[in-house]
Amino acid sequence: MAKAAGVHRTTVFPWRRASAIRDTGDVPGARVMRRILAYSAARGLGLTADHLIWGAPRAEVDEILLRRDTAREAAE
Questions:
Q1: What is the per-residue pLDDT for 10?
Q2: 37 vs 2, which has greater pLDDT?
Q3: Which domain of life is it from (predicted)?
Q4: Which pTM does this prediction carry?
Q5: CA pair distance 71, 56, nearest whole angstrom
């Protein structure tokens, strides 16, 4: 996550816990979200803004990972 967000790896540790202005797991700030979305788009990871804002059901995450893995295998 830190690499995708363009921040130091220890910066993301507090994101795992809620704060006065964020729920657990929330990414702080639109700038960071844009970086993560750009990272995902450049690598075809399938992450959307809705995923960052609302999260995603496990089945949807599994489907995204399967599509990614299938595309990688096809490219090899």
A1: 86
A2: 37
A3: Bacteria
A4: 0.68
A5: 21
Q: What is the residue type of 3?
A: K
C-alpha distance from residue 20 to each of 15, 17, 26, 28, 53 (Å): 12, 10, 12, 12, 17
pLDDT digits (tens, 9 = 90+) for 15-59: 778 888 778 877 778 888 899 999 999 988 888 999 888 888 889
DSSP string, 20-69: SS--TT----HHHHHHHHHHHHHHT----HHHHHH---HHHHHHHHHHHH
CA distances from 28 to 5, 21, 40 (A): 10, 9, 17
Span 5-16, average pLDDT: 81
Neighbour count for residue 16 (Cβ, 10 Å): 9
CA distance linking residue 36 with residue 48, whole number of Å: 9
CB contact at 8 A, 36 and 45: no
